[in-house]
Amino acid sequence: MEGKIIVVTSGKGGVGKTTATSSIGAALALEGNRVAIVDMDIGLRNLDVVMGLENRIVFNIVDVVQDRCKIEQAAIRDRRIENLFLIPASQSDNKDVLTTAGIERIAKQLRSKFDYIIMDSPAGIERGFENSVVSADEALVICTPDVSAVRDADRVIGLLYARSLSPKLIVNRIEPARVMRGEMLSHEDVLEVLSIDLVGLVPMDEKVLISSNTGTPLVLQTDSKAGAAFRQIARRLNGEADLPIEMPVYKTSMWQKISKTFGLKQ
Amino acid sequence: MLSGLFKRFTTKKNSKDAAKKRLQFSLIYDKLEVNDTTLTDLQQDIVDVISKYFEIDKDSLELKVKRDENVSALVFNTPILHVKRKQV
Ligand SMILES: Nc1ncnc2c1ncn2[C@@H]1O[C@H](COP(=O)(O)OP(=O)(O)OP(=O)(O)O)[C@@H](O)[C@H]1O
Ligand SMILES: [Mg+2]
User: Which of A27, A54, A174, A240 is the most buried (most CB within 10 A)?
Assistant: First the structure.
């Protein structure tokens, strides 16, 4: 059976594309799929360090597109998670070396070798974005609950629809306590503004930085709330579309506890 | 009750409500922005259609998108030189 290419994109930079790509890719592999994660951020590669595979790079995606090596030679096998592979970006090339025609050429081969191919798009809506979406079968849009990320997400959603892709949304870095205080847009607010389908809610989690510090997969950390959220997202993508979406939990404040003790209605 | 009272003292107006309102407005506004190529193409098409019926002054016509707070309008302004005779 042919594999599926999923692009992870956002418009705005730094909202969690790379974190989401590596985590969802790892989680899909843990579900028993053969997964390739592709770093499309040419000239600014990051997925390799986040995944702790930076010492094992020989070839990269540009080498594959330009026929200097086979996909198998560029795909680095993760030693901790079976069936998980990384195809790194090139660090030295100019970001315009890749063309959409080049990507379309290798997309067919990728689909024949893997169940899921997750493309980590660079920030922006220029060439790198075009290359990342050109062969995509599905799209995930990441945004954080702030005005600029939501506005950029809206722009990207429009561009994806124009390419006949119906993106699904992930809201990342949710801080329940601040949502409760009315300082942060809730995911309901974001959804109302963007009106697209939601595929997952990921809380702000200190474990994200720690896992990227050490290059260990977030989804293997049992005590990571973000890791758990990404595993759920992977299951939803992998056929369990109806798996309920868990709301990030609000920590009970002292006042709520007190009013509870006194039996007061909120 | 207690927490409601506490909330009233500490938070003035929710800043997220402002964020949401501003977003809803700007997303609509963003989509009304028409780029130059679209406008030039549109102008050409309109001129072609109108020229079937009227002889117009192509140098003094103007096509604009006018926007203010709640409405957006497409304004096409052209002097008519002649009415063409309908060909049967
Ligand atoms: N849920 C989260 N909780 C805490 N920190 C997070 C979370 N998601 C992402 N981060 C942190 O935010 C930063 C940016 O994340 P990431 O690199 O994944 O974003 P990106 O969208 O890929 O950025 P770029 O546009 O530069 O490629 C990183 O330091 C990452 O550790
Ligand atoms: Mg990134």
Answer: A27
Mutate to test the pocket of ligand 1, among A9, A18, A19, A41 (most ligand atoms within 8 A of CB): A19
User: Apex CA B23: angle with CA B17 and CA B26, to 5°?
Assistant: 140
Whole-prediction pTM: 0.85
pLDDT for B3 equals: 54
Cβ-defined contact of A189 to B16 (cutoff 8 Å):
yes
* Architecture of the domain whose range is A4-261: 3-Layer(aba) Sandwich (3.40)
Write out chain B in H/E/C secondary structure: CHHHHHHHHHCCCCHHHHHHHHHHHHHHHHHCCCCHHHHHHHHHHHHHHHHCCEEECCCCCEEEEEECCCCEEEEEECCEEEECCCCC
Taking each helix axis from N to C end, the angle separating A225-237 and A17-30, rounded to the nearest 10 degrees, works out to 60
Q: In the prediction, which pLDDT does A265 show?
A: 44
Query: A203 forms bridges with which residues in the sheet?
Result: A174
Q: What are the boundaries of each domain within chain B? A: 34-88
Chain B residues touching A148 at Cβ < 8 A: none
Q: What is the ipTM of this complex?
A: 0.81
Which residues of B, range 18-57, sit inside 8 Å of A by Cβ? 19-20, 22-24, 26-27, 30-31
Read off φ and ψ for residue B78, nearest 5 degrees. Answer: -150, 135
Q: Which stretches of chain A score pLDDT less than 70?
A: 250-266
